[in-house]
Amino acid sequence: MTTRDLPKVLMEAAMTSSVVLLLVGAAMAFKTVVSLSHAPEILAAWILSLSENPLILLFLINLLLFVVGMFLDAGPAIIILAPILGPIFTDLGVHPVHFAIIMSVNLTVGLATPPMGLVLFVASSVSGEKIESISKAILPFLAIEVIVIFLITYVEPISLGIPRFFGFISGG
Fold it and tell me: Which of 9, 10, 125, 148 pairs with 46 at a CA distance of 20 to 30 A?
């Protein structure tokens, strides 16, 4: 890269960044609409009414987080859902750190999931590939990530082993 290339590179970087920031801005607007409609509270009450089995409820909450991650950036989703889902997870006997890991992984995987995954738009903009081809190419990785989500959710030592080993959390 030479000094002569700098304006072109800066323009491409600005264009890529503008697409990402536009999507984040839309996600923030969506967050406001969702918050004002009290949809998270209604959804949480509905999920809890579906079953008394904690394993099924964990599955349903995972599904909710995964779907939310498809349409909403992780930051706004955490701001909206953590105060609502945190107590639900605690009532189900899930450690708060375990809940945070489950939520973070679900929302992060959702970022790369069609139809609205923010990461797909970034990858398309950076690579020049169509979102459709990137979406098809990512499907095997998403399948593995879904398996990992289930392992993280239902095999607690995967999530809490290292924090316990280093003494960040106590209990067995």
Answer: 148
Neighbours of 123 (CB within 10 A): 18
| For the chain, domain boundaries | 3-165
State residue 171's pLDDT score. Answer: 67
Cα 108 to Cα 5, 72, 105, 149, distances in angstroms: 34, 10, 5, 11
pLDDT greater than 70 at residue 129? yes
User: DSSP alpha helices (H): ranges in the chain?
Assistant: 6-36, 39-50, 54-71, 74-91, 96-111, 118-127, 131-154, 156-165
The torsion of the CA quartet 48, 96, 102, 117, rounded to 10 degrees, works out to 90
How far apart CA 96 and CA 133 sit, in angstroms, is 38
pLDDT score for 38: 81
pLDDT for 73 equals 79
